[in-house]
Amino acid sequence: MITRSKMMVLSLCICMLITLFPTLGFAEAEVEEETAAAAVPSPWKQQNIGSPSVKGNASYDPTADQFSVSGAGKDIWGKSDQFNYVYQPWTGDGAIIALVSSQTNSHEFAKAGIMIRETLNADSKHVDLLLTPSNGFTFQYRAETGGTSQSEKIASTSPAWIKLERKGNVIKGYVSNNGLNWGDLGNVTLNMNASLYVGLAVSSHNESKLSTAIFDKVKVNASGDVYPPTEPTHLQATSVTDTTASISWTASLDDVGVKDYDVYKDDVLAQANVTDISYTFTGLTPNTTYNFTVRARDTAGNISNASSPLTVKTTNQTDTQAPTAPTELVSSSKTSSSVHLTWTASTDDVGVYEYDIYRNGSLAGNTSATSFKVTGLTANTTYSFTVKARDLAGNISVDSQALSVKTNPASSDPYTPEVVANNLETPWAIDFAPDGRIFFTERNSGRVRVVENGNLKSTPVITLSSPFYYMPKSEGGLLGLALDPNFATNHYMYIYHSYKTSDNKVANRVVRLKENNNKATIDKVLITNLPGAVYHNGGRLKIGPDNKLYFGDGNYGNKDDTLSYLGGKIFRLNLDGTIPADNPFGASSPIYSRGHRNPQGLAWQPGTNRLFESEHGESSKDEINFIEPGNNYGWPKYDGGNQNQAGITPPLIYASGTTWAPSGMTFVTQGPWAGNLLVTNLKGKQIIRMVIGEQNGKPTINSSDLNYLFVNKYGRIRDIVEAPDGSLYFVTSNNGDKNGDGTPDKLVRLVPNF
After folding, report:
1. Are 200 and 115 in contact (CB under 8 A)?
2. Exposure letters 277-309 (e unless 16+ CB within 10 A, then b)
3. Listing from the earlier edge strand, what are the strands of the sheet with 206-221?
4. Residue 178: predicted pLDDT
5. Is the pLDDT of residue 458 over 90?
6. Which of 125, 165, 193, 483 is paired with 622 by a 20 to 30 Å CA distance?
7. For the residues 610-631, what does the mean pLDDT come to?
8. What are phi and psi of 554, to 5 degrees?
């Protein structure tokens, strides 16, 4: 006690030279700050709130603009808190933004995030937005000093952007997967002092162990630009000689605006404040390899992460020979505002680098492929197109033969349908490769097929053999398909299919394929022995924003909904087939949610990472659900409108009095339908466009906000996906389906008219 008192007196004397403290409790807190004063930069300070038995610590890396915060304590919850707080004083309105890059799992309810707090006392009023290892985000608040905390929850995992925004007495919480598009997580009206504290909070939910979180790009200010631009992408060399290299890149994005770029050669700044999206390096050494990177800067001085490096080797001698002219220029498709061109590749003594496309003699764009879509055209108008080939030295071929094309008449529809592939065998799922190839599965044939440069390849990517199983007029076979986020480098594909077990039972499994030049082989079985049957095999397979593999299995004729039975569930796995440690039912269970009759579609809402699911109900009770980890969605006890039961999550909307048989689904991110959810229907023979609302921090869908598209025009529609270029692709399910009419199945592209 004597030593403790002397330390307090000494610390108080030092601190009083700086400021006066209103309470003894605040003064004691400052003692803890002094022990780590050098660890965080001014105006940041650190304090352990609620006297946790294990003291937290924090540090800051200015090079990475990154905080590392460790904290222990019982929780941030209830009537008092225990955690480590890295904070600064704050007055008035504004926002705090941070990227939670990582979080250690001392307990499934360990918490790390951002907080606005009235005082530094353990029972203070506050609002926070926190991430837990296993239970998603929580938007919490304590409305009265000494009161009990309240919260709203949403499923998500790090890395994720989080934001708290204060305007008067209203504080809102937001989450984002990219820091640009923010989803409203919750809000509260809370009467707090104008001057308070804002910062980073970490609690381990374990009184004897620290939990550590990494926070990147933390910004606190009352107004102005708080978010750095995205890193530049798609660096490419546009011209290379023995002593020069010209590069270009895709512009960065910023919430306010990009000002300029800094260009680096071998990690050394070569030129600052480049206002264009291209740059030419000079004075290079012949026959030498260089690495180039680019960073973006906004008007507030925020700097992006570096782009992926571009490796370029200068030539050994001057190239003076131009490529041959492109030949066989044709138009493969057109709309009222676009024309899609294809041609035969040119040849060159060194190598063709790119093609320049001209519209009425003016440059319309360039590409390294042998196809290009010219957009922004006027309806019902004739255009002349030519193409030139170019090599890295800048030598340009003569023009191709000119092609005259007249665009379609004007259309008030946002999309124009065009058939990409016909005479398919019950296509089921679609996904896109970064190079533009379109892969899809055929349920009955067990084939994965590919469309390249607008043409369906006759040779399948793979045809599954034993133990693959399909029975005519059933719902099993080759179902879901998803390409790895790093497909460009690892060429992994994931499929979900039915098979026969050694004891002759129907089951389902998820398999990883390895693709090479439009051929694939089985690389690894990720999960097996999922319940199978004639019907209700689920099968939709998607990779979420957290880079985890999600898929659903149905529950046909089985009343068992325990966690030991895998039917009627949505699952979540790591991409190598292991179970994520933060799964809601523990690290030994792949189950993500339960109580599903026959899940058919999965889609994440952009900006919020909320997971939506479509599900076949019984007797016109088809559902659209908002999936949260660990929740129970009712089946086999409840479905449709009778799910307002304790422990049961009701649907956002269900098909009352009609049957949709909803299947694939996708969110639209471009054009007049941006933000809408599209859901394909089998029985309904249509696509439903659903407008997503918001109420009390939760999504809503009202029956008055449903729009019915292509009713009875294409028959049964199985899946729909938005392509990177804004097109929508869907497949029909009429030939070989148990309720189909036998008409040929199609892959249809909805070409944007906007």
Report:
1. yes
2. bebebeebeeeeebebbbbbbbebebebbebee
3. 57-61, 66-73, 206-221, 94-103, 160-167, 170-176, 183-189
4. 56
5. no
6. 483
7. 95
8. -85, 180
